[in-house]
Write a structure and sequence with these properties.
Blueprint (H helix, E strand, L loop, with lengths): L1 H15 L9 E7 L3 E5 L20 E6 L3 E8 L6 E3 L6 E4 L3 E6 L2 E5 L5 E2 L5 E2 L7 E2 L2 E2 L11 E3 L4 E4 L2 E5 L2 E3 L7 E4 L2 E3 L8 E3 L7 E4 L1 E3 L5 H36 L3
Antiparallel strand pairs: 1-4, 2-3, 5-21, 6-20, 7-8, 7-16, 9-10, 11-12, 13-14, 14-15, 16-19, 17-18
Helix pairs in contact: 1-2
């Protein structure tokens, strides 16, 4: 029941972000506790392969394995690309390939697929929550007075203002991106399981940046609703088992021993 509660939390978060740019849906990965072998104590009239006339064994009849429940091993993120949507906005950027934008935060570098950027009061290109986008030279800062309409971003990641290259957008990839750690505000952090970030050059290895496009969420609302119904029914089934055990124990304590 605890495992299914965690699964429901992950599904609810997916549904809440069905329209969030660059969002990657989560998935809870479950593992099972060791099973136990069950034997019929005191009944040696048949062997483990079925009835056999006159056959008796020195050990009780083997019934079969008993599962002892599951636990959530980890939460992983499905890194399938979301659909690209044309917006025409100069600072809406979408990455082709399995790479991430790199942004600066007070906690260090973080990674995102959400390419909905804007210009802050000091001329930096920032995310919707204010984290500066990083280039090869650090935070990408535009010349004073630059309007978004004057910015050109090439597929190779070069940020050009009126024919002058300001910087090249820094992008990174991971060995196991599904094991990145989610921090909120559509930001991801590296973890021991994800591996260290490896800088990649846009325009090479299938990585490219598309200006005027946004990558949508890869959440399928219908699929998540089906998963929610399934998780709810599994939770309820386990709940009924506990109620049945509780009723049996109540009868054993209050009725069986009564004279």
């Amino acid at each position: 029941m605890i495992s299914e509660t965690t699964r429901l939390d992950v599904i609810a978060n997916n549904l809440a972000n069905v329209n969030t740019a660059g969002f990657k849906r989560g998935r809870s990965v479950h593992a099972s506790y060791p099973s136990m072998e069950i034997f019929r104590v005191g009944d040696q009239s048949q062997n483990r392969y079925g009835p056999s006339a006159g056959a008796r064994l020195d050990r009780p009849l083997h019934v079969g394995p008993l599962g002892t429940g599951t636990w959530v091993d980890h939460i992983e993120y499905v890194m399938e690309p979301g659909p690209f949507r044309f917006t025409g906005e100069p600072l809406d950027l979408a990455i082709e390939g399995d790479a991430f934008f790199v942004v600066s935060t007070p906690r260090g570098e973080r990674y995102t697929r959400a390419g909905e950027f804007s210009i802050d009061p000091v001329g930096r290109i920032v995310t919707q929550s204010g984290e500066p986008l990083l280039g090869e030279r650090g935070e990408i800062t535009l010349p004073p007075g630059t309007s978004p309409e004057r910015i050109v971003v090439t597929r190779e990641g070069e940020v050009i203002v009126e024919g002058v290259t300001v910087d090249r957008i820094l992008v990174a990839e991971f060995e196991s991106p599904s094991r990145l750690q989610r921090e909120g505000r559509n930001l991801l952090a590296e973890s021991p399981e994800s591996g260290a970030p490896e800088p990649v050059v846009p325009g090479e290895g299938g990585i490219a940046i598309n200006q005027g496009y946004l990558e949508g969420s890869n959440v399928n609302a219908v699929e998540e609703l089906v998963n929610m119904i399934e998780a709810t029914r599994v939770y309820e089934a386990n709940q009924r088992v506990i109620l049945a055990q509780d009723e049996s124990l109540s009868k054993a304590v209050n009725e069986v021993g009564r004279v």
